[in-house]
Design goal:
Chain A: It is a multi-pass membrane protein. Chain A: Belongs to the binding-protein-dependent transport system permease family. The structure holds 3 protein chains of 3 kinds. By secondary structure, chain A is mainly α. Chain A has 14 helices and no strands. The two termini of chain B are 26 Å apart. Chain B is an all-alpha fold. In chain B, strands 1-2 form a two-stranded antiparallel ribbon. The chains are: A mainly alpha, B mainly alpha, C alpha/beta. At the A-B interface, helix 1, helix 4, helix 5, helix 6 and helix 8 of A face helix 1, helix 2, helix 4, helix 5 and helix 6 of B.
Chain lengths: 276, 313, 451
């Protein structure tokens, strides 16, 4: 018995070592990034990582000397608008595909599916011209309007709506609710977890988009954070690494916090996906 | 990548068959349908379908300095691309990147998920730590790693100096630059992939492992003969979205290498952007965009098809 | 009631879309400076970092100097990225009234017909341009008509670490060095520092190759670099380019040459190494000078861009950018743009600009200002770029390349440089570059209907 216990302990020890080593490997870029964000650039450039000149100067510089707060604000507004739009338009079209009967329904649904096969990256030239023709360049709407809906979101919510229990629908029928009421009072509340999941994905997707905003924004008033960092980097002739790292940290810390808080929802969303 | 993540996760047919009921079938449905589905259809038409046809159209012309189509040339742009060593090498580079990223993301993701699925005290901490890169956006990943790859003060340079190894100038050596981009991409995607794999591994019935334990089968064997086959649908799902995501990679390249050195990381989407918005050659860029579309459509289609069949069920 | 309700949702949807569209606009425009009766002149520029700060001084100075106009500066990132933005936004409300576009985009801008030639305003205003450097002016004029007004003009110069040379007792390079002069210094730095300091680098940047060719007196394309007709063929595979690369290769063999690659950070890494005393010599725009002086613990040495052995230097082309006036804005806005241009050329403004950045003051009277006199007293080497400019006799080889698609050409040049640096055959790389540029030229000329 003792033998087995010892073997087990040894095995666990080995597991822990491996777990810790891998955690270190994954976290090293974070540690270095965040640690150097507290150091003066001069020390960083000398490779003096163990400098004791720790300060918040870089953060102060990032906040006061760069438009990073403006970039963050822009990104929050744009991402929130896109998220809300996705929740509305995707749930509406999903509702139509599940609960309504209309001509060419199959065809239209197929169209939605085909849309998912078309990469947005390939559409940048005509979309740029469209947005230009609409006079939206360099406005939030240049980023929001083309992203108001999502075929993926529609598909995802359709799958969720299909699983709404019969009883709910029957009850709604008996009460004589119309489609708007059913949609608003029955279907949406019942599927709120799926909606939250979609919201999170949409928000993150918008938050992370890089190529499109770079094409349609021309000033700090509308520039988003993903492009903003590139801007900071290109503006600094003499890489002020301390401040650049601080800016990166300013962006990544809130996202990670949000992620940890929202982890539960992500997981449930993913588990839905983790084929059963 | 996140955006398309759960795309086909929910097996469609199964659900549909389970409870297919409708509310009321009234004549009003058409009216409601136009309100409910109309906006999305309109928007997708304007910003997804129309651009595709427009891109196809532009790709068969020459475009002038202002990006206007001037001369119809049929498939000339495509022929030029396919016969240009530059473009062919770009396709190779893209392929190497896609294969590299997909392989390492999956291998690392599986390794981490398998480790973190053990029932050990404190394992929750590791699960959280491993998923942390999910919160990292392109630009942050690029900046963190740019510093690590920095030839004068970067972490790798210090490390190699400490170990008295020859220093590698990551970003000016074509092979190393590719590795730099692959490493950064894998790192960035790892958190998400890890979480999905973890979920899949956890949903494998424990009885299977218990039975294997009784028979004295090694953990190693269990992983390859129980875990892997059981999570094969997830494996397939992750592979396809990683492949699709890597084909569309842009931000990291723009931030880290700008396609260089010697076009060693000049991948498809970067070319599309570069040819149109730097070179001003909209026609060439459009032809490249169509080629990208064909590739992405193929892999998405594959994803749809296989998931319908539900791998290994 | 039910009728009314039926329309509620479509209305809400419509409203939602409208709100999104218009709040988006409002949000982004609201931040512009408080409204008054001034005419706004949107100014797109590509001056990052410290140069942006000194440019802001110019803009603020202008805005304070009068009450009719307000120049609103908007930073557009790199020169490269700005060109397509300018071309693509023309005619929209987003487009600038006055913009800064760099040297190699001159042909594109002229052909675009998107700008009002400044000559029109010069004539209307009887503005005396004789004080403005003729070399710089001629770069941006077409058949004697001024198309744009040069603003930030630089020279490519060679920087060296003078303290380092002193320390090791190395004779500095002469005023107008040959390749072998530089090879000698670079080699000595490398050897005498026990291989701790690299001798030299030439950044993978097409501009430097172009300058090497200009300085050797050869052209990059036929039709004299586009000065006597639309270019149809590239001629990079020439003796001067070969000599230039053989020179680099020789230094590579000696071990004193280092390449910082072509990635996003190559330029900054090069500068950082130089400032940290790990690199002896490099070539860069004179616009880096004030920065190099400010942050440098070592004494900065500056001399002319090197030229091939056995011949006289032909002089390099000016670099930098000019200010163009868009023709899609109302008359008063365009007039405001010109007023800003006039202001930017004042002797004191140009003198301060040179002092702050290292770009050359274009107004001859600037040299008499106290600002520059003080600068030269403190940093005698700051005269070098202006002297290099004055010594050059303008000809077709050193007056820039008037060709569309120069940005693509630069990328092709850079590709050739990279493959040579990585050990590739020089002639093959140059031939390859010619072929690629030719292909682009053919397509561009066909698409635009140039014959």
């Amino acid at each position: 018995m003792i033998n087995i216990d010892e073997r087990k302990i040894l095995k666990n020890l080995f597991s822990y070592i491996l777990l810790i080593v891998l955690a270190v490997v994954i976290l090293v870029p974070f540690f270095i990034g965040i640690w150097t964000s507290f150091l003066p650039t001069a020390d960083i450039l000398k490779g003096n990582y163990f400098s004791t000149n720790i300060s918040l100067t870089n953060y102060l510089d990032a906040f006061t000397k760069t438009p990073i707060l403006r970039y963050l604000g822009n990104t929050v507004v744009v991402s929130t608008l896109i998220m809300l739009a996705h929740l509305l338009f995707c749930s509406m079209s999903a509702y139509a595909f599940v609960f309504l009967d209309f001509k060419y329904k199959k065809f239209f649904f197929a169209l939605f599916m085909v849309t998912m096969m078309l990469p947005g990256e390939a559409a940048i030239i005509p979309n740029f011209q469209t947005v230009k023709a609409l006079g939206l360049l360099d406005h939030y709407s240049a980023m929001v309007v083309p992203a108001l809906t999502s075929a993926f979101g529609t598909f995802m919510l359709r799958q969720a709506f299909l699983q709404t229990p019969k009883e709910l629908k029957e009850a709604a029928d008996i009460e004589g609710l119309n489609h708007f009421q059913i949609f608003w009072k029955v279907i949406l509340p019942y599927n709120r977890i799926s909606l939250i999941t979609l919201g999170a994905y949409s928000f993150l997707g918008a938050w992370n988009s890089y190529l499109w905003p770079i094409l349609v924004t021309f000033s700090n008033e509308s520039r988003v954070i993903q492009n903003g960092l590139k801007q900071l980097q290109s503006e600094e002739t003499f890489n002020n690494w301390g401040m650049i790292q601080a800016s990166a940290a300013i962006i990544v810390i809130p996202t990670i916090l949000v992620l940890f808080i929202g982890q539960h929802y992500f997981k449930s969303g993913l588990n839905e996906g983790a084929v059963k | 990548m996140l955006k398309t993540s759960t795309t086909n996760v929910v097996p469609e047919k199964k659900v549909e068959a389970k409870n297919k009921t409708k509310f009321r079938l009234t004549a009003n449905d058409k009216y409601y349908a136009s309100i409910f589905a109309g906006p999305s259809l309109f928007l997708l038409g304007l910003f997804t379908f129309y651009p595709m046809f427009r891109t196809l159209y532009i790709s068969m012309f020459l475009t002038n300095t202002f990006g206007n189509t001037t001369l119809f040339v049929g498939l000339e742009n495509y022929v030029k691309l396919v016969t240009s060593p530059d473009f062919v090498s770009s396709m190779w580079v893209t392929l190497v990147y896609v294969v590299g990223v997909t392989f390492f993301t999956i291998a690392m993701g599986l390794l981490l998920a398998n480790l973190a699925s053990q029932k050990l005290p404190g394992i929750a901490i590791f699960r959280t730590l491993y998923s942390v890169t999910m919160g990292v956006s392109v630009s942050v990943a690029a900046i963190f790693w740019l510093f690590i790859f920095n030839p004068s003060a970067g972490f790798f340079t210090l490390l190699t100096k400490l170990l008295h190894l020859p220093t590698v100038n990551w970003l000016s050596n074509p092979t190393m630059a590719m590795w730099a981009i692959i490493i950064t991409t894998v790192w960035m995607h790892l958190g998400f992939v890890f979480l999905v794999f973890l979920g899949a591994i956890e949903s494998v019935p424990t009885t299977l492992y218990e039975a294997a334990d009784v028979e004295g089968v090694s953990k190693h064997y269990q992983f390859f003969h129980i875990t892997l086959p059981m999570i094969s649908p997830t494996l397939f799902f992750i592979s396809t979205i990683t492949i699709i995501g890597s084909f569309k990679s842009f931000g990291l390249i723009d931030l880290i290498t700008k396609g260089g050195p010697t076009n060693a990381t000049n991948m498809l989407v970067y070319r599309i952007y570069n040819d149109a918005f730097f070179g001003g050659n909209y026609a060439k860029s459009s032809a490249e965009a169509i080629i990208l579309t064909i590739i992405i459509a193929f892999f998405t289609y594959l994803q749809f098809k296989f998931l319908e069949k539900k791998v290994n069920y | 009631m039910s009728k009314y309700k039926k329309f509620a949702l479509p209305l809400i949807i419509l409203l939602a879309i409208l709100v999104v569209v218009f709040t988006g606009k409002a949000f982004s425009t609201k931040t512009a400076a408080a409204k008054d009766n001034r005419t706004e002149v949107v100014f797109w520029h590509e001056m990052g970092g410290p140069a942006e700060k000194s440019l802001m001084k110019v803009v603020d100075g202008f805005n304070k100097s009068q009450t009719k106009y307000r120049v609103v500066p908007k930073y557009q990132g790199s020169y490269d990225a700005a060109i397509q933005k300018i071309l693509q936004t023309h005619g929209t409300s987003t487009s600038p009234a006055v913009f800064q576009a760099f040297d190699i985009s001159a042909a594109q801008m002229m052909h675009s017909k998107f700008t009002t030639p400044v000559q029109k305003f010069i004539d209307a205003d009887n503005f005396d341009v004789s004080k403005i450097s003729p070399v710089a002016r001629s770069f941006y004029s077409d058949k004697g008509k001024q198309q744009a007004m040069p603003f930030n003009t630089s020279q490519t110069v060679l920087y060296y670490n003078a303290s380092l040379l002193e320390k090791y007792g190395i004779t500095p390079p002469p005023v107008s060095p040959t390749y072998s002069d530089i090879t000698r210094v670079a080699k000595e730095i490398y050897e005498k520092s026990n291989h701790q300091v690299k001798g030299m680098t030439v950044q993978i940047y097409g501009w430097l190759l172009e300058q090497a060719m200009a300085n050797a007196g050869v052209s990059l394309t036929n039709n004299n670099d586009g000065h006597t007709g639309i270019p149809t063929k590239a001629t990079i595979n020439n003796k001067a380019a070969k000599e230039f690369f053989e020179w680099i290769r020789e230094n590579q063999k000696n071990g004193d040459f280092i390449s910082y690659g072509s990635g996003a950070m190559a330029g900054t890494n090069q500068t950082t190494s130089f400032l940290n005393g790990k690199l002896g010599i490099y070539m860069q725009s004179s616009a880096s000078m004030s920065q190099l002086n400010k942050k440098n613990k070592n004494k900065l040495g500056i001399t002319y861009f090197p030229h091939p052995d056995g011949q006289k230097a032909n002089g390099v082309a000016i670099g930098g950018a000019a200010l163009w006036i868009s023709n899609d804005k109302p008359k008063d806005v365009q007039q405001g743009a010109f007023e800003f241009i006039k202001y930017s050329l004042k002797p004191e403004v140009q003198a301060q600009w040179q002092k702050d950045t290292g770009y050359l003051a274009l107004n001859k009277d600037s040299q008499q200002t106290k600002i520059l006199k003080d600068l030269y007293k403190k940093h005698p080497e700051a005269r070098v770029p202006s002297q290099q400019l004055q010594e050059a006799v303008p000809n077709n080889f050193n007056s820039g390349i008037l060709m569309e698609g120069m940005q693509k050409t630069r990328q092709i040049e850079q590709f050739a440089m990279e493959s040579i640096y990585n050990g590739g055959d020089i002639v093959k790389a140059l031939k390859d570059a010619d072929k690629k540029i030719d292909e682009n030229l053919t397509t561009t000329n066909r698409a635009n209907g140039y014959h």
